[in-house]
Amino acid sequence: MNWKFLFNPFSKFSEKQLFITGVLYFIINFFTCFFTKIQMDSLFHFTENENLSLTSGFLLVTISNVSAIIFLFLLALIINKKTRFIDITNTVLISQAPNFLILLCIKITSMNSLAKNLKTNAEAANTLKINPLELLPLVFCMLILLAIIIYGFVLIYNGFKTATNFKKWQHIALFIVLLFFFILFHQVYIQNLNL
Known about the structure:
This protein is mainly alpha-helical. 74% of the residues lie in helices and 5% in strands.
């Protein structure tokens, strides 16, 4: 099996195929956010929100994706002025495709409630007495989530690299640092919005 298409679909499939697939996953992610009541704060970052409405869920997913597309397109133009907007759009949409798995994993395993219970027990006892068996589902879920998030970052890196054709280590470092700061800034900005 050729693993290249799994980690770099941007060099294998046409821009139309990537765009249609990306839009399909955008819709899946939006509905998954709504049904799990977990809002998208930024690329690869989510927060539980029991009051998440259909409109708010759609707006948050849209704002996160559109702002990432604009940010990465502007960055891409600095690196390579011939970068096409559709390539950056596909990069963001495809990199966000596995997000519905993250949302489902968080909801199904009740990871947040497990973490809250551990914190409450530690505060009540004034010591951290943890049964290793209680931590097993949390650790297992965290490993799965970490793998999915790393896969998303690999997709966004490979898509951006394919779109801009960058090769210098300075461009790679610039991309990684600016993407990290964009995600942090966007996360704080979205959490301060009242949608």
